[in-house]
Amino acid sequence: EASQEIFRIASMAPGALLLEAQKEYEKESQKADEYLREIREQQLLPEAVGQCIEAAGYEHEPHTQKSLLRAASFGKCFLDKFPPESFVRMCQDLRVLNAIRDYQIGIPLTFTQYKQLTIEVLLDRLVLRRLYPLAIRICEFLRLPEIQGVSRILAHWACSKVQQKDKSDEEVAQAINHKLGDTPGISYSEIATRAYDCGRAELAIKLLEYEPRSGEQVPLLLKMKRSKLALGKAIESGDTDLGTLGVGTQTWVRGTMGTLGVGTQTWVRGTMGTLGVGTQTWFCRHQERDTLKDLYNQDDNHQELGNFHVHSSYS
């Protein structure tokens, strides 16, 4: 509607008059003052500025966009308290739209589509097309929070990187760490999980070395059946509250307790003792089905043992 009001033939809408006033001002013509006075006498200058800003959003040609925004900027000079937010936001939106409309990107969204989709969905589309540099530049330009913007995009990039089969595990791990570093909101354990799902277990272990939180390292190591390594990580952390670690390593410890030093054995036994039966059962149900049967036998839990056999027969 704003575009129709401004560009209609012989239109006398406030936005059309303001656009003409700005063009005459550039020509240093006195008609600029006549158009401007006509708008101000009707007290329609705020509406004229708003129309020019709105119409700029619906134009695809940058030259026309700039012409309308220059008219809006010209009109703002004669207003005392016109809020600048709408003008600034429109300039930002048009820069983003013009960038993605470029033939090399090929996402010709309209302004209405862009607003309906939201910037988050647009970034997801760019990420799916692996246009990571453009997505990151848009996040930085719009000053989006890192967790919502740059960190999320870098995480997607890293998950895509681990699927590259033409490079060694060491090269991929170093490239990811060099790019991500200690970026807030990045979870190396999630990237390692993706690597493991792609069949690159050694790469997953290398990526876990960059994960600073032991509580994030241990569950994946247990899933990968690296119980000894998981126990080592827990011992290094000194955190006896890593309940899932204790449960996960319990099976391994039964077979290898004799290979541990006396001090380590004592620490492990102390940790095992703090775990509830419910926690043990929960872990074994998800990770160690054979051990779950042993637990039920040990506790003479015939009801759950029967349920276990029924579920096993179905699977």
Automatic annotation (TrEMBL):
Residues 186-314 form the Vps16 C-terminal domain. Signal peptide: none annotated. Keywords: Coiled coil. GO terms for biological process: endosomal transport; intracellular protein transport; vacuole fusion, non-autophagic. Residues 18-45 form a coiled coil. It comes from Sakesphorus luctuosus. Residues 2-89 form the Vps16 N-terminal domain. InterPro entries: VPS16, Vps16_C, Vps16_N. The gene is Vps16. Transmembrane segments: none annotated. This is Vacuolar protein sorting-associated protein 16 homolog. Belongs to the VPS16 family.
